[in-house]
Amino acid sequence: MANYREMWENLGMDLAAHDNLCAVLPTAFGDVYLSQKNRPKAMDFWDMVVADIHGIRPAELIEAQKKGQKVFGTFCVYVPDEVVIAANGIVTGLCGGSQFWVPDGEKVLPKSTCPLIKASVGARLGKTCPFFRIADMYVGETTCDGKKKAWEILGKDVPMYVMDIPQMKRAKDVKKWAEEIADFAAVVEKETGNKITPEKLADAIRIINEKRKALARVYEARKSSTIPISGKDALLMMQIAFFDDPVRCAQMVNRLADELEQRVKDGVSVFPAGTKRILLSGTPMAIPNWKMHHIIETSGAAVVCEEACTGTRYFEKLVDESATTLEGQYAALADRYMGINCACFTPNTKRIDDIIRLAKEYKVDGVIDVNLKFCCLYDTEGYTVENALKEAGIPVLGIETDYTDADAEQLRTRIQAFIEVLG
Ligand code: SF4
Ligand code: SF4
Fold first, then answer.
1. Which of 134, 224, 235, 392 could form a disulfide with 264 if both were Cys (CB 3.0 to 4.6 A apart)?
2. pLDDT tens digits for 242-272?
3. pLDDT tens digit string along 123-169?
4. In a domain, 320, yes or no
5. Total number of domains in the chain
6. Which of 262, 314, 299, 325 is nearest to 411 (CA)?
């Protein structure tokens, strides 16, 4: 990592603790990523970003703040980036994906909280992540109980706005979400000092739709029997998409997609012919949570798709660009975002349909349903997911895990046995 100590110091970070994180990340990245063979050349961009993950983008955000822009930190794919961008704000994802942050989270949260929440709270309170220091405002949502209570704790330390997400998807719920988006827009206008106009929102909708289209191209290439990119690399691209400038993100992802499409034409695969194809479904895999992809792809199979918020839920479905009034645009945003199928909704049968559809589209040999420990929503829904897949004749393995490596060998044994059965 380049030397950003002064910047981190100015952000009020705990430099000694942060040094410990900086000491392990490059090795972890080297072991998991740089050890792969025949990676797409375009992955150079993401390797560079990760090499300075607490430097390059944070420095950009601070520069933007000096010019008057505001940074909004978000934790969920239901929060519409478009609204922030329309007010000349910047969005950065804040979900924590490392065990490093969990102990600081456990100082204020029950141990029986999902690791993603513990890591997110720990990253802020432990002062060991620059993104959590830079954000001017956090935007939470009422998706799961753990998050709702965590926002109350974080809200004592940082300005926090919480969007109230419906629990069902009836017409009146979609309307309510449109109203929530309009309320959020008013908060964003106040924070940024900029008015959101239909023209600005239309531009923002187009920018984020372009990003979604680029991500979809990469996933489209992954459907090929020639597997042009590892699941690990696709996951990294997706994880960084939550942090990066959306226009640059679309450019870089399109560049990668060009290369992958050429690889498919040329028959260049990163896995030997006949490698078993796996769809991962379940809870999000926030950076640097590469655990399941690494275990699967070093056990003889390939991850070809993720039904997750760090996967298809992030980019599928575009926002309708035809509305010309703010009211119409908020309704279009609500329609698109309420089309995401998260386990926090009931009923959530469309998620089951999604998983079966994706299993077919990506021609997978099996599904691994991976849920974070103590995520009551996804763990409970796992029962329905597994039954539906079995009924559809698609092999499935259900896994519950956390961010530690304590269960890695046990998981490897189970996954290898699952892959053998597929063979
Ligand atoms: S899993 Fe649900 S709560 Fe978590 S980021 Fe995705 S949509 Fe939001
Ligand atoms: S993984 Fe589950 S418990 Fe954790 S934040 Fe997401 S929905 Fe909440």
1. 224
2. 999 999 999 999 999 999 999 999 999 999 9
3. 999 999 999 999 999 999 999 999 999 999 999 999 999 999 999 99
4. yes
5. 1
6. 299
With a cut of 70, say whether residue 374 has pLDDT above it: yes
| Cβ pair 313, 342 in contact under 8 A | yes
Cβ atoms 82, 50 nearer than 8 A? no
- Distance between Cα 254 and ligand 2 center (Å): 30
The pLDDT, as a whole number, for residue 310 is: 98
Long-range contacts, stretch 45-52, CB < 8 angstroms, 24+ apart = 45/252, 45/255, 45/256, 46/233, 46/236, 46/237, 46/240, 46/252, 49/240, 49/244, 50/25, 50/236, 50/240, 50/288, 51/1, 51/26, 52/1, 52/2, 52/4
Task: Name the closest ligand to CA 149.
Answer: 2
Cα–Cα distance for residue pair 330/229, rounded to 1 Å: 36
Q: How many CB atoms lie within 10 A of CB 145?
A: 13
Query: Are 226 and 264 in contact, with CB atoms under 8 Å apart?
Result: yes
34 in a structural domain: no
User: Residue 51 domain-assigned?
Assistant: yes
Could you tell which of 143, 147, 164, 374 is best to mutate to test the pocket of ligand 1, judged by most ligand atoms within 8 Å of the CB? 143
Range of the domain at 385: 5-26+39-421
CB 222 within 8 A of CB 305: yes
Amino acid letter, 280? L
- Ligand 1 centroid, distance to 308 Cα (angstroms): 8
Mutate to test the pocket of ligand 2, among 141, 143, 144 (most ligand atoms within 8 A of CB): 144
Q: Is 33 contained in some domain?
A: no
